[in-house]
Amino acid sequence: MLRSSDPNRVIIFDTTLRDGEQSPGASMNIEEKIRIAHVLEAMGVDVIEAGFPVASKGDFDAVREIAKTITTSVVCGLSRATKGDIELVAEAIKPAARGRIHTFISTSPLHMKHKLQMEPEDVLKKVVESVSYARRFTDDVEWSCEDGSRSEHDFLCRCVEAAIGAGARTINIPDTVGYAVPEEFAALIRMLFDRVPNIDQAVISVHCHNDLGLAVANSLAAVSAGARQVECTINGLGERAGNAALEEIVMGLRTRHDRMPFTTGIKTESIMRASRLVSAITGFVVQPNKAIVGRNAFAHESGIHQDGMLKHAGTYEIMRPESVGLTASKLVLGKHSGRHAFRTKLEELNYELGDNAFEDVFVRFKELADRKKEVFDEDIIALVDDEIVRAHDRIKLVDLEVECGTRAPRAKLTLSIDGEQRHCEGTGDGPVDSAFRCIKTLFETTARLQLYQVHAVTGGTDAQAEVTVRLEENGRTVNGQGADTDTLVASVKAYLNALNKLLVKREKVAPSAALA
Ligand code: KIV
Ligand code: ZN
Questions:
Q1: In the predicted structure, residue 383 carries a pLDDT above the cut 90
Q2: Whose CB among 146, 319, 460, 476 lies 3.0–4.6 Å from 106's, allowing a Cys bridge?
Q3: What does pTM read for this prediction?
Q4: Best of 78, 111, 144 to mutate for ligand 1, by most ligand atoms within 8 A of CB?
Q5: Taking the domain 392-506, which CATH number applies?
Q6: Residue 174 C-alpha to ligand 2 middle, in angstroms?
Q7: 466-494 pLDDT per residue, tens
C-alpha cells in the first residue's frame, strides 16, 4: 500500500494515459505513452494508470511496456470485475517494479439496474470475488465503485467495507458523471469515514469528472474531508468534459496551503513540460485562459495590472510562473551557439538524447537559427519533439514547393517512401489542400482528415508553426505532428507523421499488406 508516514501527504494518481486517452480523438501510440509516462515519473507522480489492458492489444502492450521502464512510480492497469480482465492486468504489470491492479464495478441503482442488469447483492459478491482474485497477483489492489457519488449510502458502505475486507488497499470513490457539488461530495467522504468500520485500513481516493466544471473543487473538498489520493489528468484531459486537472489540484494545494495543509510529491516546475507534451501528442489545444497552464495564465495585459505588477508582483500574481516551469521566454541560443551550449540547454529542458539524435537535432537547430532571428526555449522544445516524433517514419518529406496567392495554388512534392523517392505535382483548394492531395497521390490511403490545426510556437511572424493533423482509417484515429518555420512544411510533416502512424497500426493488423 502506498501510504505515507505523513498523514497530510496526498497521493497523486495520474490517469492521462487511461481516462485521458478515452477522450474521442486523444488516442496515443505506445511510444507516445512511454514518453508521457517518463515525464510523469520525473515529475513525481505517485501512480501512473497506464491503460485498460482488456480494451485492446495496444492498451495491453502499452501497460506492459510502461511497466518495464518505469521504476519509481507505481504502474497501474484498470480492469472490470472479471477474472479475465484481472488476469490481463496482472500479466501487463508483471514487469513493474511496483504494480497495481485497479478493479471497478458500478454501485449506483441506475448503473446496477440498467448497465449491469444485476441485483445489488450480486454486485456485492462480485466486489469480494474481484478484489480477492486481484490480491492473488499483487498486494496493491485498488477498488472503485463506478458512479459512487450517485450510490445509496448504506449499500456503498457495505461495498467499501467488503472491498477492504477482501484486501483492497485503496478505495476510490468516483464522481463518474461529474454530478456532485463540493459540499455534498465532502460529506460523502466524511460519511464513509464515520460509518465504514475498517476504513483506516485503506487509502481513500477520489476521481472526479468535470461535467459541471467542479472536478477540481470536488477533489479538493474531498481531500479536506480525509481523502488522501486524487485521480487526475494533465490538462484535465478525459471523457466528455474531462477529469480533474492535475496541475490545478497540485497548485491549489501548494498555493493555498494555509487553508489546505496538504502536500504532494509533485515537482511543480515540470508542469508546463507535461502540459505541452500531452497537448502536442493528443492535438488537444490548451485554452488560453486555462488555469495554471493556459498561455494567458500568467500574462498581465491591462495597464492597471501591469502598473501593479511593476510595483510588486504579489499585487496580481498568486503563483510565480517559474513554480510551474514557465521561464520568462528569453533569448537562449543563437546562430553562434555551439554544441556545448546546445547540449546544456537540452539538459536544462530535460531532454536526454543519444549522440546520433543529438547531432541530427543540432543540425536542425543551426538551420533554424539561420532562419529565425531569435531562438527561444519553446522553439527548441518544438524542434526536438518534432525530431523524436519522426525518428521511425517510413514516409519522409524530401522536398516541397508551393505556389499560392492570387494565382491557382499548385504543389510540387517529393517523398521518400521506404527509401524510394516519388514525385508529384498537383492543385487543390488552397496550398495546404494541394500539398495533401499530392501526398494522397503518392501514397494511396482511405484515411479521412478529421482535424487540421495550426499553432504558433512563439510570437512574431518568423515563429515556428506547430501543426496537428488527425486522420481516421477503419475506425482507428491517429494524431500527427509537425513543426517548422514554414507552415506548409509543418503541415506536410504532420500529415506524413499521421500516415506513418497508421502504417504502424496497419502492420500490426496485417504485416504483409502494410504498404498501400
Ligand atoms: O469515471 C469513473 O468512474 C472511472 C472509473 C473506472 C474509475 O473512470
Ligand atoms: Zn473516469
A1: no
A2: 146
A3: 0.85
A4: 144
A5: 3.30.160.270
A6: 7
A7: 899 999 988 888 889 888 989 999 999 99
Q: Which range has the worst mean pLDDT, 192-201, 260-269, 298-307, 382-391?
A: 298-307
The residues near 252 (Cβ < 8 Å, ≥ 6 apart) are: 216, 220, 260
Residues paired with 401 in a beta bridge: 412
**DSSP label of 53:** G
Considering only CA atoms, which residue is closest to atom 8 of ligand 1?
Answer: 19
The bound ligand whose nearest atom lies closest to the alpha carbon of 177 is 1
- Percent with pLDDT over 70 in the chain: 95
Q: What mean pLDDT is predicted for residues 414-424?
A: 94
Superfamily of 11-282 according to CATH: Aldolase class I (3.20.20.70)
- The residue extents of the domains of the chain are 11-282, 297-326, 328-388, 392-506
143 CB within 6 A, ligand 1? no
pLDDT single digits (tens) 125-159:
999 999 999 999 999 999 999 999 999 999 999 99
Residue 508 pLDDT > 60: no
Say what the alpha-carbon torsion angle 57, 58, 59, 62 is, to the nearest 10 degrees: 120
Distance in Å, CA 147 to ligand 1 centroid: 8
Residue 175: nearest ligand to its CA? 1
CA 102 distance to own-chain centroid: 19
Across 108-218, the runs of DSSP E, i.e. the strands, are 141-146, 170-175, 203-208
Q: Is the pLDDT of residue 188 over 60?
A: yes
**Helix axes of 377-390 and 487-509: crossing angle, nearest 10 degrees:** 30
The amino acid occupying position 135 is R
Distance from C-alpha of 19 to C-alpha of 52, rounded to nearest angstrom: 9
- Give the relative orientation of helices 182-195 and 153-166 as an angle to the nearest 10 degrees: 50
